[in-house]
Amino acid sequence: MLISPNTNLNPRITVDRKDIERVRQYKYLGAWVNEEWDSEQEIKTRIEIARASFTKMKKVLCCRQLNIKLRVRILCCYIWPVVLYGCEAWTIKEDTRRRLDAFEMWCYRRMLRLSWTQKVTNMRVLQRVGMSRKLMQTVKKRKVAYLGHILRNERYQLLQLIMMGKIEEKRRRGRRRKSWLRNIREWTGVTIVEQLFRLASDREEFSKLTANVQ
Description:
mainly alpha; two-stranded antiparallel sheet; 4 strands; globular
Protein backbone atom coordinates (compact mmCIF):
# COMPACT_ATOMS: atom_id res chain seq x y z
CA MET A 1 0.00 0.00 0.00
CA LEU A 2 1.25 3.45 -0.92
CA ILE A 3 0.19 6.47 1.15
CA SER A 4 1.35 9.67 -0.51
CA PRO A 5 -0.13 12.95 -1.78
CA ASN A 6 1.59 12.21 -5.08
CA THR A 7 -0.84 10.00 -7.01
CA ASN A 8 1.60 9.41 -9.87
CA LEU A 9 3.94 7.21 -7.87
CA ASN A 10 3.97 3.55 -8.85
CA PRO A 11 6.89 1.86 -7.09
CA ARG A 12 7.84 -1.74 -7.72
CA ILE A 13 8.96 -3.78 -4.71
CA THR A 14 10.35 -7.29 -5.09
CA VAL A 15 11.30 -9.93 -2.52
CA ASP A 16 13.17 -13.02 -3.71
CA ARG A 17 12.54 -11.85 -7.28
CA LYS A 18 8.78 -11.84 -6.72
CA ASP A 19 6.73 -8.68 -7.05
CA ILE A 20 4.75 -7.65 -4.00
CA GLU A 21 1.18 -6.89 -4.97
CA ARG A 22 0.08 -3.31 -4.42
CA VAL A 23 -3.41 -2.93 -2.92
CA ARG A 24 -5.67 0.10 -2.46
CA GLN A 25 -7.22 -1.22 0.73
CA TYR A 26 -7.08 -4.20 3.09
CA LYS A 27 -8.70 -5.38 6.29
CA TYR A 28 -6.51 -5.37 9.41
CA LEU A 29 -7.87 -6.75 12.71
CA GLY A 30 -11.39 -6.47 11.35
CA ALA A 31 -11.08 -2.83 10.23
CA TRP A 32 -10.61 -1.46 6.71
CA VAL A 33 -7.45 0.53 5.97
CA ASN A 34 -7.12 2.38 2.65
CA GLU A 35 -4.61 4.50 0.77
CA GLU A 36 -6.48 7.73 1.50
CA TRP A 37 -6.22 6.97 5.23
CA ASP A 38 -9.87 7.91 5.45
CA SER A 39 -12.29 6.50 8.05
CA GLU A 40 -15.43 6.98 5.96
CA GLN A 41 -15.41 3.52 4.40
CA GLU A 42 -14.77 1.84 7.76
CA ILE A 43 -17.60 3.78 9.45
CA LYS A 44 -20.03 2.85 6.65
CA THR A 45 -19.02 -0.80 7.01
CA ARG A 46 -19.47 -0.79 10.79
CA ILE A 47 -22.91 0.79 10.47
CA GLU A 48 -24.08 -1.82 7.97
CA ILE A 49 -22.78 -4.67 10.13
CA ALA A 50 -24.57 -3.17 13.15
CA ARG A 51 -27.73 -2.72 11.08
CA ALA A 52 -27.62 -6.43 10.19
CA SER A 53 -27.14 -7.30 13.88
CA PHE A 54 -30.14 -5.14 14.76
CA THR A 55 -32.26 -6.95 12.16
CA LYS A 56 -31.28 -10.33 13.64
CA MET A 57 -32.43 -9.15 17.08
CA LYS A 58 -35.50 -7.35 15.76
CA LYS A 59 -37.96 -9.65 17.55
CA VAL A 60 -36.50 -8.63 20.90
CA LEU A 61 -35.62 -4.99 20.20
CA CYS A 62 -38.99 -4.20 18.63
CA CYS A 63 -41.12 -6.27 21.02
CA ARG A 64 -43.73 -4.01 22.60
CA GLN A 65 -44.27 -6.47 25.43
CA LEU A 66 -40.85 -5.47 26.77
CA ASN A 67 -40.27 -2.12 28.48
CA ILE A 68 -38.59 0.40 26.17
CA LYS A 69 -35.89 1.11 28.77
CA LEU A 70 -34.98 -2.57 28.83
CA ARG A 71 -34.85 -2.68 25.03
CA VAL A 72 -32.60 0.40 24.95
CA ARG A 73 -30.24 -1.31 27.41
CA ILE A 74 -30.15 -4.38 25.14
CA LEU A 75 -29.41 -2.08 22.19
CA CYS A 76 -26.49 -0.47 24.04
CA CYS A 77 -25.18 -3.86 25.10
CA TYR A 78 -25.38 -5.77 21.80
CA ILE A 79 -25.58 -3.29 18.91
CA TRP A 80 -23.48 -0.29 19.97
CA PRO A 81 -20.28 -2.37 20.45
CA VAL A 82 -20.62 -3.60 16.85
CA VAL A 83 -20.74 -0.11 15.35
CA LEU A 84 -18.13 1.31 17.75
CA TYR A 85 -15.47 -1.33 17.10
CA GLY A 86 -12.18 0.47 16.51
CA CYS A 87 -13.75 3.94 16.81
CA GLU A 88 -10.68 5.20 18.71
CA ALA A 89 -8.84 5.27 15.37
CA TRP A 90 -11.53 7.12 13.42
CA THR A 91 -11.22 10.66 12.11
CA ILE A 92 -14.70 12.12 12.32
CA LYS A 93 -15.90 14.55 9.67
CA GLU A 94 -19.24 16.32 9.55
CA ASP A 95 -20.82 13.89 7.09
CA THR A 96 -19.68 10.84 9.08
CA ARG A 97 -21.04 12.43 12.26
CA ARG A 98 -24.41 12.87 10.59
CA ARG A 99 -24.25 9.27 9.40
CA LEU A 100 -23.71 7.98 12.94
CA ASP A 101 -26.49 10.19 14.31
CA ALA A 102 -28.84 8.96 11.57
CA PHE A 103 -28.09 5.32 12.41
CA GLU A 104 -28.81 5.94 16.09
CA MET A 105 -32.18 7.49 15.25
CA TRP A 106 -32.89 4.67 12.77
CA CYS A 107 -32.54 2.18 15.65
CA TYR A 108 -34.84 4.11 17.97
CA ARG A 109 -37.50 4.57 15.28
CA ARG A 110 -37.47 0.84 14.47
CA MET A 111 -37.81 0.02 18.16
CA LEU A 112 -40.84 2.33 18.40
CA ARG A 113 -42.17 1.05 15.07
CA LEU A 114 -42.41 4.55 13.66
CA SER A 115 -42.76 5.09 9.92
CA TRP A 116 -41.25 8.13 8.22
CA THR A 117 -44.74 9.01 7.01
CA GLN A 118 -45.79 9.70 10.61
CA LYS A 119 -43.43 12.69 10.64
CA VAL A 120 -42.34 12.33 14.26
CA THR A 121 -39.39 14.60 15.08
CA ASN A 122 -36.10 13.26 16.39
CA MET A 123 -36.57 15.18 19.63
CA ARG A 124 -39.92 13.50 20.18
CA VAL A 125 -38.40 10.08 19.44
CA LEU A 126 -35.64 10.66 22.02
CA GLN A 127 -38.24 11.70 24.58
CA ARG A 128 -40.23 8.52 23.99
CA VAL A 129 -37.19 6.27 24.48
CA GLY A 130 -35.99 8.37 27.42
CA MET A 131 -32.56 8.94 25.91
CA SER A 132 -30.33 11.70 24.61
CA ARG A 133 -27.99 11.11 21.67
CA LYS A 134 -25.32 8.75 22.99
CA LEU A 135 -23.54 7.17 20.03
CA MET A 136 -21.45 10.13 18.92
CA GLN A 137 -20.79 11.15 22.51
CA THR A 138 -19.38 7.68 23.18
CA VAL A 139 -17.06 7.97 20.16
CA LYS A 140 -15.73 11.28 21.47
CA LYS A 141 -15.09 10.01 24.99
CA ARG A 142 -13.37 6.86 23.78
CA LYS A 143 -11.11 8.77 21.41
CA VAL A 144 -10.11 11.31 24.05
CA ALA A 145 -9.49 8.60 26.65
CA TYR A 146 -7.39 6.67 24.12
CA LEU A 147 -5.10 9.67 23.63
CA GLY A 148 -4.39 9.77 27.35
CA HIS A 149 -3.80 6.02 27.40
CA ILE A 150 -1.21 6.31 24.63
CA LEU A 151 0.69 9.24 26.11
CA ARG A 152 0.90 7.72 29.61
CA ASN A 153 2.31 4.35 28.57
CA GLU A 154 5.97 3.86 27.63
CA ARG A 155 5.18 0.85 25.42
CA TYR A 156 3.50 3.21 22.92
CA GLN A 157 6.65 5.20 22.18
CA LEU A 158 6.26 4.78 18.43
CA LEU A 159 2.70 6.15 18.53
CA GLN A 160 3.88 9.03 20.73
CA LEU A 161 6.61 9.83 18.22
CA ILE A 162 4.10 9.83 15.36
CA MET A 163 1.70 12.12 17.24
CA MET A 164 4.30 14.60 18.43
CA GLY A 165 6.43 14.56 15.30
CA LYS A 166 6.36 17.30 12.68
CA ILE A 167 7.29 17.25 9.00
CA GLU A 168 9.52 20.19 8.05
CA GLU A 169 7.99 20.94 4.68
CA LYS A 170 5.64 23.43 3.11
CA ARG A 171 2.02 22.38 3.14
CA ARG A 172 0.60 21.56 -0.27
CA ARG A 173 -2.15 23.63 -1.83
CA GLY A 174 -5.77 23.04 -1.01
CA ARG A 175 -7.88 22.78 2.07
CA ARG A 176 -6.22 21.12 5.02
CA ARG A 177 -7.63 17.68 5.81
CA LYS A 178 -9.13 17.14 9.24
CA SER A 179 -6.76 15.11 11.37
CA TRP A 180 -7.33 12.58 14.16
CA LEU A 181 -5.80 14.95 16.70
CA ARG A 182 -7.82 17.93 15.50
CA ASN A 183 -11.01 16.06 16.42
CA ILE A 184 -9.81 15.83 20.01
CA ARG A 185 -8.72 19.46 20.12
CA GLU A 186 -12.16 20.58 18.96
CA TRP A 187 -14.05 18.31 21.37
CA THR A 188 -11.98 19.18 24.45
CA GLY A 189 -11.62 22.89 23.67
CA VAL A 190 -7.84 22.62 24.17
CA THR A 191 -6.53 24.06 20.91
CA ILE A 192 -2.82 24.10 21.80
CA VAL A 193 -1.35 20.64 21.14
CA GLU A 194 1.44 20.95 23.73
CA GLN A 195 -1.10 21.86 26.41
CA LEU A 196 -3.27 18.90 25.45
CA PHE A 197 -0.30 16.54 25.73
CA ARG A 198 0.59 17.93 29.18
CA LEU A 199 -2.98 17.39 30.37
CA ALA A 200 -2.99 13.85 29.00
CA SER A 201 0.04 12.94 31.11
CA ASP A 202 -1.99 13.66 34.28
CA ARG A 203 -4.49 10.82 34.66
CA GLU A 204 -6.85 12.57 37.08
CA GLU A 205 -6.99 15.89 35.21
CA PHE A 206 -7.45 14.18 31.87
CA SER A 207 -10.19 11.95 33.27
CA LYS A 208 -12.10 15.09 34.27
CA LEU A 209 -11.57 16.55 30.80
CA THR A 210 -12.83 13.33 29.19
CA ALA A 211 -15.91 13.22 31.41
CA ASN A 212 -16.89 16.76 30.33
CA VAL A 213 -16.71 16.03 26.60
CA GLN A 214 -20.15 16.53 25.03
